[in-house]
Amino acid sequence: MCGICASIGKGNQIEDVLKGLKRLEYRGYDSSGIALLKKAKIETIKSVGTINRLEEKVCGNDNSNVVIGHTRWATHGKVCKENSHPHLSFDGSVAIVHNGIIENFEELKKQLDGVEFHSQTDTEVFSNLIAKESGSSLEKLLSASKKVQGSFAIAVLFENEKKIYCAKRKSPLYVAIRQGQIMAASDISAFEDKFDFFYVLEDDEFAILSENKVEFFAADCTGIEKEQKMFEKTAFFEDFPDEKCFMRKEIAEQPIVLKRTSFKYFSEKVVSDETISKLKKFHNFHFVACGTAYHSALLGAEYLQRFAKKHCEVSVASEFRYGSQKINKKCLYVFVSQSGETADTIACASMVKEKGAKVLCVTNVPYCTLNNLADFILPTFAGKEIAVASTKAYVAQVFTMLILAGLMSEKDLSETLKRFVLSFQIKPFPEEILKEIFSYSKIFFVGRGQDYVTSLEGALKLKEIAYINCIGIAAGELKHGTLALVDDKTLVVVISTKKSMREKIENNIQEIKARGGKILLLSQFEHNVDVEYKIDLTAFDEEFMPIESIAFLQQLALAYALAEGYDPDKPRNLAKSVTVE
Ligand code: AGP
Questions:
Q1: Residue 336 dihedral angles phi and psi, to the nearest 5°
Q2: pLDDT > 50? residue 237
Q3: Which of 63, 402, 494, 526 has the fewest Cβ atoms surrounding its Cβ within 10 A?
């Protein structure tokens, strides 16, 4: 995973690189580091932990106008200073920061006979390969890149050279330019507040950043012209306020996100009628996504089936990618991804495209790798989501796919959708219930149909930020095995928002109670069974209830994490954007 950020210009560039890295921390925050050119020599500063820790290590004397930096999510080798980037070559002449995975690094290591390695990373091989090549710096970089298999976005410093060399394959890399400064980063969010223009580097292209210009080269070393893109300064561009807990802020923002989405689709018509007519022609839809986005895809499929009478399938990207299914050219493949940078999802979209099928991407970041592969784009308008646990991006995806289903349906749902956004609010999770349920560490989430999806998403939230080993399960599946785990120390969170399923859910509750399990019921209606705890949901139309109910489960997870003193925004072992498979 990881994020890279580099800057060259007039004056000290350290601050801008650190600022950029902070904005890329969603890609990993195990350790970080920078390399600077000082009196033509390369120096590195590294630290385990977040960029704040690295910042503490940078002292007043550190000053350079050529700086590359990295924030790491460990793939090869444990989290420690030695494994953090930048990695120097054996002779100290080359420093590299890298996002991606060098798949043949073991093999390359053997070829670098006599070189002493100081880390367990795949990246250290790359800096040494470059240093061992001959020719100009660009030629060295080109030939080393040819030997490397896998994915990379890199920024490289050579001693004695006031330049930054960049290259990429499969991992994203952007370059932005303004008077007196040029920056490169894994994501435009690293610098979008300062620049008006940027370039998107394509696979196997190279860039040389010098103090006053940027030059681009193709894989054969010939110079190329690249199209300049303008930043879209969106009206809802949210910078990084002094917010202690982004997850809390992002949960609270959900009503505004839905209002914005409704405005974008119904008033601004971000997706044209012509596009909708094209989409309507497809009868089969196959959704592909990971994690939370997979859960929203499950709901998207449910809505398209229910309202637009389409035939839908849903797959987890990492399974779809290596599965034996045939790609159907008549089917529309829908890739759902907040970041648009998730490696497995991107790989599936490329595979589908190569086989001649059409691709629809539901993404929250306009300039992302996934959108480059899209035939159709359905943007979501969650705004920047910083916390690793997805909350507002999830409801934005769910609501956007509901809008899509509405636009493709015979029945006009627009007024119902607009009415919903005007009345939807986040109600706080009842404190008195929280106090009582904190003692449970064995928790199951159950539901049927759309509530099964909410149970999966509720369990994922609790796992990822509160580190509780819980599961979400279809209520009807309980008695096929998992019921064996239920005892009087178990809390079962039951989501029941489908009237047609009420009696079935009541039976499931009885089965749990008979084994001593305690029930927390989330529903907008009464049930003929006593439960220990009940949260009364607002009674919206059934299709909106996943949005209403998940807000409580997001708050539940947040409360558990905070009670244990965990940082909900940066859970251990995870990163916001999973850019490696
Ligand atoms: C959500 O809370 C997770 N952090 C994770 O499951 C995430 O949804 C998944 O990695 C997919 O990310 P994407 O939407 O950026 O593709």
A1: -110, 125
A2: no
A3: 526
Residue 511 has which token pair?
């089965």
Distance 290 CA to ligand 1 centre (A): 6
Confidence of residue 152 (pLDDT cuts 50, 70, 90): very high
- Measuring CA to CA, which residue among 85, 213, 221, 215 is closest to residue 153? 85
Nearest by Cα to 246 from 23, 495, 507: 23
Q: Is the pLDDT of residue 147 over 90?
A: yes
Rounded to the nearest angstrom, the distance between the alpha carbon of 547 and the centre of ligand 1 is 17
The mean pLDDT of 283-299, rounded to a whole number, is 98
CA pair distance 6, 20, nearest whole angstrom: 8
Residue reference for tokens 């106008």: 65
Which amino acid type is present at position 463?
K
Q: Is 32 exposed, middle or buried (0-12, 13-18, 19+ CB in 10 A)?
A: buried
Q: What are phi and psi of 52, to 5 degrees?
A: -55, -40
Please identify every residue annotated as catalytic: 2, 576
Give the separation between CA 493 and CA 102, rounded to whole angstroms.
43
pLDDT of residue 241: 52
Average model confidence (pLDDT) across the chain: 94
Q: Which long-range contacts (CB under 8 A, 24 or more apart) does 481-485 make?
A: 482/444, 483/511, 483/512, 483/515, 485/442, 485/444
Element (H, E) at 8: strand 3-9
172 cis-preceded (ω within 30 degrees of 0): no
Name the residue of 26, 186, 338 whose CB sits within 8 Å of the most ligand 1 atoms, as the mutation to test its pocket: 338
Greatest alpha-carbon pair distance for the chain in Å reads: 80
Q: Is the overall model pTM greater than 0.90, yes or no?
A: no
Q: DSSP per residue over 394-424, as a string?
A: HHHHHHHHHHHHHHTSSS--HHHHHHHHHH-
Count other Cβ atoms within 10 Å, centred on residue 40.
11
Q: How far apart are CA 9 and CA 402, in angstroms?
A: 47
For ligand 1, mutation pick of 335, 342, 554 (most atoms within 8 Å of CB): 342
pLDDT confidence tier of residue 239, bands split at 50, 70 and 90: very low
Grouping H, G, I as helix, E, B as strand and the rest as coil, residue 380 is coil
Both tokens assigned to 477? 């599946």
Interacting residues of 365 by C-beta distance below 8 A, sequence separation 6+:
187, 338, 339, 340, 341, 371
Pocket of ligand 1 (CB under 6 A): 290-293, 337-339, 342, 345, 388-390, 464, 577-578
Please enumerate in sequence order all residues whose Cβ is within 8 A of that of 166, keeping only pairs 6 or more positions apart, or say none.
6, 153, 154, 155, 156, 173, 175, 184, 201, 206, 207, 208, 209
Q: Which two tokens stand for residue 264?
A: 């974008």
**Ligand 1 center to residue 355 CA distance, Å?**
26
Average pLDDT (130-142) is 95
What is the rounded CA–CA span in Å between residue 357 and residue 493? Answer: 40
CB 25 within 8 A of CB 203: no
- Helix or strand holding residue 146 (H, E): helix 137-147
3-state secondary structure of 205: coil
- The CA-based angle 544-548-551, given to 5 degrees, is 140
DSSP 3-state assignment of 180? coil
d(CA 486, CA 519): 11
User: pLDDT (tens digit, 9 = 90+) per residue, 300-337?
Assistant: 999 999 999 999 999 999 999 999 889 999 999 999 99
